[in-house]
């Protein structure tokens, strides 16, 4: 095959704690001849499958890619050696790095930094959403304890404090009482400050929000092409990932098109995507609160949106909604890279007919 006519996709992955999905063989997701696609893989040490080692243009294994700056060095080397046309990652904590790598490699398309930041920085995404009248909880960027105190003076308790670039529920704190607040500020707020001078102050990498206690919470997962929804899989949480970390049971209930909530969730999802700078091909995981507005109407309030497939058991549940077969990782990979899904005898949810 003429290498110049082949699309070269750099996959940056990290395989850490085992989940319900085992590590994948990325070269199973494409056909070199039919798709005219070749894979270049950067992954965790020992994570590449034997088939990927045989089929990929090149495989690089690093101890922990998410905390190894050699990922960028290798990306530059691999581009010079093989030519990288697309950069793909499903890891939330690599999304921004992948955007910077695209810029480094001279890519003018794909998810670049100024767009990607709005799907990672929780303050930036809420600021963009609120500017365009999408419902959000009250929020403020945090530089010091004074910001949190002023916020509680204005909006009361409870509140939630979390990293602006966090993922899952890492670093989140819900503060219910004044005593909780004082304990948090005394013992936890400055725990990342390093006595040896590595970190001397905070630069606004925390956000405080009004905590919407008692609200139902939903997540909408899907694929948008040029900002328009083409596939969507909404769920209601039975307790969230954050509640799971506090010992509660965790679960999700799939919401079919026959459910009255489906259309409203999809409408709010499309409204948000109309606001955000979406790449040409976007897989996303959106979290929303169900809230009664001041006019008494049910509305959905933005928690956050991520430019990635859902993690953990959610991907498995989507696969079941598609009919089973374990093909969702492949479908997600192909859609993310602009490749038509293969025909596995499954019929993904139709395009959004209810909104046409």
UniProtKB/TrEMBL annotation:
PROSITE patterns: ATP_GRASP. Keywords: ATP-binding, Ligase, Nucleotide-binding. It comes from the Eukaryota. Residues 126-337 form the ATP-grasp domain. It holds the Pfam family CPSase_L_D2. The keyword Nucleotide-binding applies. InterPro entries: ATP-dep_AA_Ligase, ATP-grasp, ATP_grasp_subdomain_1, CPAse_ATP-bd. One of its GO terms (molecular function) is ATP binding. This is ATP-grasp domain-containing protein. The lineage of its organism: Eukaryota, Fungi, Fungi incertae sedis, Chytridiomycota, Chytridiomycota incertae sedis.
